[in-house]
Fold:
Amino acid sequence: MNPIITNSTNEPAVILRSVAKRFGAVQAVRELDLEVQRGALVGLLGPNGAGKSTAIRMIMSLIRQDSGELRVLGGDALDAKDRIGYLPEERGLYRRMRVGEFLIYLGRLKGLPRQGLSARVESWLERIELPGVFRSRCQELSKGMQQKVQFIGAVLHEPDLIVLDEPFSGLDPVNARILISTVQDLHRQGRTIFLSTHQMAQAEQLCERVVLINRGEKILDSTTREVTQRFSPRAVEIEPLAGIQATRSALEAIPGIESVKAAEDGRTAVLLVNERTDPHAVMSLALATVPCRRIEIARVSLDDVFVRLVTEHGGHARQPVRGAA
Amino acid sequence: MTIAIREFRHTVLTKGFIFGAILFPLLMFVVIGVMPFLLSNDQVPVRGTVVVADSDGSVARAIEIAFARFQTKTETGIGSSTAAINDALAKSQRGDVAALDALSDITTTVEVTVRRMSIDDDLAGTRDQVQSGELLALVEVPATLLESDPPADADVSLLVPSNSPAKTTALFARIARKATVVARVERTGTDLAKATALVREPQAQTARLTSTGTKAKENLELRFMIPGGFMMLMWIAAFTSANQLLTTTIEEKSSKVIEVLLSATSPLELLAGKILGQGFVSLLMLSTYGAAGIAGLAFLTMLDIVPLLSLILFFLWFLLAYFMVASIMAAVGSAVSDLREAQSLVQPAMIVMMIPLLLWLPISENPTGWLATITSFVPPIGPFVMVLRTTGAVEPIPLWQIGLALAVNGFSTIALVWIASRVFRIGVLMQGKPPTPMELLRWARTR
Structure:
């Protein structure tokens, strides 16, 4: 474990070194190493109960790690609360409080001056497509609307680091898209964004880098591009005009192809390419050999990687019996 | 401070609080102020004839004299005079029974003619007249009642119309009973005034000889009521706000808003803000009820019984008591998920906090005794006991005891707030079954 000494502006926004946390009999997080560079958009992935929320709560100094080192924006998150925005996994707001009043209250807690705060709240409500709810009571809003209000609470003070725990869960596609677009805008502004999710499609769409944890242990930490390359199945998907039955022998004869796996419909097949051959070369040869309706390099999704890695590492994590995980 | 302001506003700006803590004492004060006016203007005049049936006319005569006194009083306007009330009070204390009678109906117009009948007459027609409302009342006094040794089961009979006001009926009953006694005593040739003076019990002018040898005035009623009033006021104000603290903490925890707050502020700041905010609520409540009480004392020209020093000390004891109770409630509120779970943890604390209520009378009786002295240094009941002592003692409480009680309870308050902050920090993020007291202690020790 390398000790963290520096406190310069080049230091990553979040650093975890061998961080561990246990709740009774459950080891929620074990020996977790993690770095989130300033200005990056990093996704923390993992199945339910993997330890994502515990890791995030430790980053937010809401709970203390049992061991290991942890630095946020060059120090303790408690000392930089005004520079951090946080959307917890378990959403909460004062049900009887008015939306505007609630957001102003959060803004004041984050150190924003009273002057101009109402206008800032109104502007955010407009931006996130919640116009006219400033004076509504929180309990009058739908669940999705409440979630958007809480999102505003996390970003209202324009923090340097934004930590979002499952920001898209429970949102309909339209609202999820609005939030994704806002997160992308904030990232373009240079803010560091660290989000946890178990929705792989959104992580794939948003994140530059992903960290996958399972049973409190990190099992993957890489850029999204590297992940798709590394876990590429080295395969070519093909749909010959004459069907698979008529073309199978011609396809098997192409150099570099290990096997041809026909789909059940008999129209498409996957050509598995050996490690010494470039799948693109195989694709060109196949196209020259067999007239095709469609041919493409098979693409791996984060979903596939997620399922594969989690299965390899012993399946889904257990839900802690009691505790803050 | 932002948290404290929110906590204060969202508690105070509710219908329940506005009614309970502001409108209710105001209403009480208005009622106290207006009541004498209402009473003086809501008297039904008593005009008409009362028939008295006795054996020799002596009771009828005595009743006639009693009613004549009322008439005189009304004519001279004595009924509206406060001085007359005081005069009647003083006379009654000296044994003037008639003065006491007059007092109870001092503002009533009474113009009654007394018609005498014999107890042996046929009274059926008279009873019909009472029933129809022609007569105000029929008083029947059996002859045996006027004997020097009347039978124990003999009574005066009083018949009134069904719509006779209760107060008028009570007045007739009182006069009939007293007039019977007057007539009976007169028949024995005894001077009633002398006899009354002879059997009058003198007042005991009690004074306490203090350790310095000076005499301190003793007022038993005030010695019990004033300290009890102060202690109850403090108890209610502290517990109402602390309970509110418990409720809002549980609400914030169950609605999950607590994590949002903790991302913006530290648990200690959150706890401090909540305790301060509810403290302001408690002070507001204390001020409104206290002001109503002080205004009441001023109205009764008894303001001197609450010296300024007592009020200052009361404020200090209140702060200590509130912070102790609030810390306990906040810690419990943070550790549980709903009010039902809170009950089991709060109950032991509540039993302890009931002790001052149980000790009210013995401590008020002897504010410098060993029980009062020892319990002053036992937190969290110490501040409540000290309020009982400092507002109730005739003899001043030794300064060292006040200083030591402030120190012990002050230190305990700091310790309790510290423990509460440790428990709060962990408890607010915990879900699931409520912790045991041992777990709470472990949380308090956790780094």
Q: What stands out?
A: Residues 119 and 125 of chain A are 10 Å apart (CA to CA). Chain A has ten helices and 13 strands.
